[in-house]
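Thread amino acids onto this structure.
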């Protein structure tokens, strides 16, 4: 158990922040992640006992030293790859599913890092690695938000004694989506806009009792982001074990965040917030990915994160509009920071 204020307190805080900003959304604009049809060609179950990852070390760290070290890492099933910006986690290994996981699941995936910065050159600052799902290449293109794309994952939070003893972000689950910006330059010709990618999603933050005057360790779900791109509190985490996280995109360009403890499918009651991060309206869903964070001291392992059954869902092209229309009329108002 993590000594945090608990779920009800944070839920009230989220609503309070939303009311202060004065932004409300009707239920017709929501989309519970996991609705629609699962795209079987992306995501993973980790049930294959021969599952493996080819690291192709040293990893890439373009964000720190402009060094793209190729060839980059890739999963044996071609469903995951190393991000050239930050590189892959140091440990990517199939493990037995921890107790309480999805029924029938025997395999899950451990993600953990020691050197999240430049290999062999510790920065002694928080750095992060990326573990990226291959979506747009496997479905032959980006997914328009008119199809209601969503991503869902189960994440196992270990007991606090196993967390890296560091206050700050430890884990991220995010999506890559695009919006349009004006296109300029000599070769833009008839094209007046171009696509730009941004990355909304979840971070799990840890607040160590050894840092400051806290009486207990506790953790929080932090959401990225509001209309200015700032993070905001989504939920206090009152218990460890399995959690289900989901992110969805709707045809109006909003990003919707859902979460609950346990592995059951998400429902409307698990809605945390709906935002236009950075003030952008999403147009296409490209992929989803995970961040593994550490203090990058060259010695200390990050918190061991275990994920299971990450999946992407969409509606058929002709059904997406109908699905959102059918949710109208409940009268429930959802507020967002």
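Threaded sequence (337 positions):
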């Amino acid at each position: 158990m993590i000594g945090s204020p608990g779920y009800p307190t944070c839920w009230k805080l989220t609503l309070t922040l939303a009311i202060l900003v004065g932004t409300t959304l009707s239920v017709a604009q929501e989309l519970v992640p996991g609705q629609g049809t699962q795209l079987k060609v992306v995501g993973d179950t980790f049930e294959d006992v021969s599952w493996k990852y080819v690291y192709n070390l040293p990893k890439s760290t373009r964000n720190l030293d402009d060094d793209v070290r190729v060839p980059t890492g890739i999963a044996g099933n071609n469903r995951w790859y190393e991000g050239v910006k930050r590189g892959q986690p140091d440990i990517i290994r199939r493990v037995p599913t921890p107790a309480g996981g999805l029924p029938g699941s025997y395999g899950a995936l451990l993600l953990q890092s020691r050197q999240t910065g430049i290999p062999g050159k510790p920065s002694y600052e928080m750095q992060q690695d990326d573990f990226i799902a291959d979506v747009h290449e496997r479905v032959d293109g980006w997914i328009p938000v008119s199809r209601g794309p969503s991503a869902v994952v189960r994440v196992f939070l270990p007991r606090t004694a196993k967390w890296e003893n560091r206050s700050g972000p430890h884990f991220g689950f995010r999506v890559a989506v695009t919006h349009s910006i004006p296109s300029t330059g000599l070769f833009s010709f008839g094209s007046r806009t171009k696509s730009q990618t941004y990355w909304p999603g979840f971070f799990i933050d840890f607040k160590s009792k050894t840092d400051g005057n806290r009486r207990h360790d506790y953790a929080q779900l932090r959401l990225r982001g509001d209309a200015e791109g700032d993070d905001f509190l989504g939920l206090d985490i009152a218990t460890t074990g399995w959690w289900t996280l989901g992110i969805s995109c709707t045809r109006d360009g909003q990003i919707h965040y859902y979460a609950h403890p346990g592995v059951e499918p998400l429902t409307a009651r698990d809605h945390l917030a709906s935002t236009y991060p950075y003030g952008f309206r999403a147009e296409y869903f490209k992929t989803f990915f995970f961040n593994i964070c550490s203090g990058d001291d060259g010695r200390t392992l990050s918190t061991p994160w275990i994920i299971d059954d990450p999946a992407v869902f969409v509606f058929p092209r002709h059904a997406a509009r109908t699905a959102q229309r059918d949710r109208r009329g409940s009268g429930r108002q959802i507020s967002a920071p």
